[in-house]
């Protein structure tokens, strides 16, 4: 990834990547305020929570599949790479007063053309207003509450040793709220968001059935089961399409098509 050549326009980025930039720019505002007020404990607390909660527990988990599996120059991959580079650039600069030597090393590593420059000579990052104007934060906040319910349901099955990795699971989500069901249907790739191999959505009049976990407040029930099909040896998702491609007999249709396309363009 060359940021000068490969960064894509914000308007072309995927919604989850725009969300990641939104939370990053808000973090930058709060950290800047912390430094200006000499509240260094606040800075470290903000950074720690951001790295653990927004990044590790949510965003990095969700984009792993896209980053590793999609073609290297695809919009899907370039979108998350573009967001990650901005996040990394902000983190290096805001942490440079606390970890001066480590951030100097990281800065030198990602700016090979500027080896003589120092991170400490760079201007302080300024929040990007376009990223801050992202209008769908509440939508993602709502989805992440549902995701937390799904994660608890998956962990319950994992503790009972009915599944191992979450990709071994398929989930059935039952909604007693029509608007809630339509809300979930508005997302393109719930499988990646929930880290499972299959997601099916159902409408129900009530939540009287048997579920792995349910939440009466948001009127959702989650049933976890073993995913159908076989494990793709490239993406580790379980799919009934594994083996359908005669050339790539151990891969799902998605991975097989990606490799066929790469072979055509000489990128395999």
What global shape is seen? globular
Low confidence ranges: none
Please tally the β strands and state the result: 6
- Residues in β-strands, percent: 5-15%
- Kindly state the percentage of residues in helix: 40-55%
Return the structural class: alpha+beta
User: What is the count of DSSP helices, taking H or I runs of 4+ residues?
Assistant: 10
Strand order of the largest sheet: 2-1-4-3
Quaternary structure: single chain
What is the typical, i.e. mean, pLDDT? 93
Rg to the nearest angstrom? 21 Å
Summarize the helix and strand pattern as letters: HHHHHHHEHHEEEEEH
**End-to-end gap:** 17 Å
Largest sheet composition: 4 strands, mixed
Element layout with pairings:
Elements: H1 3-6, H2 15-36, H3 40-69, H4 75-95, H5 100-110, H6 129-132, H7 137-159, E1 169-175, H8 178-185, H9 190-194, E2 198-203, E3 213-215, E4 220-226, E5 230-231, E6 238-239, H10 253-264
Parallel strand pairs: 1-2
Antiparallel strand pairs: 1-4, 3-4, 5-6
Helix pairs in contact: 2-3, 2-4, 3-4, 4-5
Kindly describe this structure:
With 268 residues, this protein is an alpha+beta fold. A hairpin with a 4-residue loop joins strand 3 and strand 4. It is globular and about 60 Å long. The chain starts with a helix and ends with a helix. The model has no long low-confidence stretch (mean pLDDT 93).
What attributes does this structure have?
268 residues; alpha+beta; 4-stranded mixed beta sheet; two-stranded antiparallel sheet
């Amino acid at each position: 990834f060359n940021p000068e050549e490969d960064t894509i326009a914000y308007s072309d980025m995927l919604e989850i990547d725009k969300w990641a930039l939104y939370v990053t720019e808000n973090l930058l505002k709060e950290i800047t305020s912390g430094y200006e007020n000499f509240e260094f404990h606040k800075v470290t607390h903000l950074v720690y929570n951001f790295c653990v909660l927004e990044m590790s527990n949510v965003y990095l988990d969700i984009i792993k599949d896209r980053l590793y599996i999609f073609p290297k120059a695809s919009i899907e991959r370039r979108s998350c790479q573009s967001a990650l580079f901005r996040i990394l650039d902000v983190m290096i600069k805001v942490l440079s007063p606390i970890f001066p030597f480590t951030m100097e090393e990281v800065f030198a590593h990602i700016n090979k053309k500027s080896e003589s420059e120092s991170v400490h000579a760079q201007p302080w990052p300024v929040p990007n207003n376009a990223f801050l104007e992202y209008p769908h934060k509440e939508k993602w906040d709502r989805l992440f509450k549902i995701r937390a319910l799904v994660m608890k349901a998956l962990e319950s099955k994992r503790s009972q040793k009915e599944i191992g990795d979450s990709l071994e699971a398929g989930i059935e989500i039952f909604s007693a709220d029509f608007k809630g069901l339509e809300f979930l249907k508005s997302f393109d790739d719930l499988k990646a968001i929930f880290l499972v191999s299959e997601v099916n959505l159902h409408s129900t009049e009530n939540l009287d059935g048997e579920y792995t976990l349910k939440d009466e407040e948001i009127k959702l029930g989650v049933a976890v089961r073993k995913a159908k099909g076989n494990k793709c040896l490239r993406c580790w998702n379980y799919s009934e399409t594994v083996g359908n491609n005669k050339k790539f007999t151990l891969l799902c249709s998605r991975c097989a098509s990606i490799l066929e396309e790469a072979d055509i363009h000489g990128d395999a």
